[in-house]
Automatic annotation (TrEMBL):
Swiss-Prot/TrEMBL cofactor(s): Zn(2+)
Keywords, comma-separated and alphabetical: Metal-binding, Oxidoreductase, Zinc
The name this protein goes by in its record: Alcohol dehydrogenase-like N-terminal domain-containing protein
Keyword Lipid biosynthesis in annotation: no
One Gene Ontology biological process: butanediol biosynthetic process
Gene3D superfamilies: Medium-chain alcohol dehydrogenases, catalytic domain
GO molecular function: (R,R)-butanediol dehydrogenase activity; zinc ion binding
Domain Alcohol dehydrogenase-like N-terminal, first and last residues per copy: 25-146
Length: 155
């Protein structure tokens, strides 16, 4: 599978040998149709102050460089995990890039944006939208109505 990988400041590489992710029971596999580039991506490209760091794995993903970029993306569901009932193959989705522990007090209260170990797909591991495929938790894949373009949905 192809993926744009961050190897450090100023070092992005399009790799053709990245392992395609497998869909876990609570996930959907998405083929990105649109992926944006925002200021966070530019900061990551220019400096080594992003997490994960070269030698410090992110606490939830366990990943270090290289990581696949792309946290603002939308696309098509191509596979559905066995525990997922509200999405199906062919659905158009906008993907919320949240990585959370689901165990800390904030997560248990539903405030995953305040997770003690908060992370973002495409910046801190877990794959990214600048790849052929990515698996995301189904709760973070939101159906797009036909009237909303991939571009608008991915922002």
């Amino acid at each position: 599978m192809r993926a744009l990988r961050y190897h450090g400041p100023g070092d992005l590489r399009l790799q053709h040998d990245v392992r395609e992710p497998e869909c876990l029971p609570h996930q959907v596999k998405v083929r990105p149709a649109w992926c944006g580039i925002c200021g966070s991506d530019l900061h990551a490209y220019l400096a080594d102050k992003v997490i994960p760091l070269r030698d410090t794995p992110h606490p939830l993903t366990g990943e270090t460089w290289p990581i696949t970029l792309g946290h603002e993306f939308s696309g098509d569901v191509v596979a559905v995990g066995s525990d997922v009932s509200d999405l199906k193959v062919g659905d158009r989705v906008a993907c919320q890039p949240t990585i959370c522990c689901s165990k800390c007090p904030s997560c248990r209260q539903g405030a995953v944006n305040c997770c003690d170990s908060l992370g973002f797909i495409g910046l801190m591991g877990g794959g990214g939208g600048m790849s052929d495929y990515i698996c995301v938790e189904a709760r973070f894949a939101h159906k797009l109505p036909d009237s909303i373009s991939y571009e608008i949905g991915g922002k």
